[in-house]
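Q: What would this chain look like folded?
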Amino acid sequence: MTLAAIDIGSNAVRLLICEVVKKGKNTEFNKLNLLRIPVRLGFDVFEKGFIGGQKKKMLINTIKAFNNLMKVYEVDHYMACATSAMRDAENAKEIIKEIKSETSIEIEVITGELEAEIIYENHIAELLDNDKSYLYIDVGGGSTELTLYHKSNIILQKSFNIGTVRILTKKVKDETWDDMKETLKELSKKYENIIGIGSGGNINKLYSISGAKTGKSISYETMKEIYKEMEPLTVDERMKKYTVKEDRAEVIVPALTIYNAICKWANITEIHVPKIGLADGLIHHLYDMVVHD
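A: My prediction, written as structure tokens:
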């Protein structure tokens, strides 16, 4: 069976195509293709409240290209979800309608809570040590999703309107930062030695910049050092020094700001980076729906 997931984020739009193979009791998810297009919807939405003509055209063209690729791969089932920027865009409904009429692709705008839940569909819980507490952190362009697991139970699942593009466009409210701070400080009082698990393109890039060996975590101390080194540089200097594309060079410092704040408030000393994200979660979610239909 071939499945596809489209993740329409505030910074990038991704397409993940997977072949799902049953081997006895195990199910293997083999990636056939992963595409990331920096459409950057959040720069319109967080500044103006709606998606402008140019970004709309880029989004429609991206979905058309994804649709064609899905046909080439003979995808059996797909799921297309939009997150923070589309949640906030006043013209989201009409754009979704237009995309459907031009491509037949149906897009669902999901809540922050459902986003956190779908990321959990990666069956991360299976990789966790039953006796420990883990904070799953997904930093996006428009929002950050936090999920706390304690002894394999979900204690908290919360979405905050704090994201990399929101920070760049100066649209994060002080009270949202305060809410996150209070939430995490309360958690760190109840649960000691919380271990971080990070997902998303920024933490993956930071992980490779840190030089951490495969399977090892990235420490909070290392992230503070990278921030100190990276923050004063221009976007061009970051692109050259860390070999990153322009849109990544722009959002990586705001991402570090978010991760470092979370580590500080939750007393987290290290973050594990299993290289998974919303698109992976969507594939698992879709597979479970197809199988149980």
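The CA atoms of residues 49 and 143 lie 15 Å apart.
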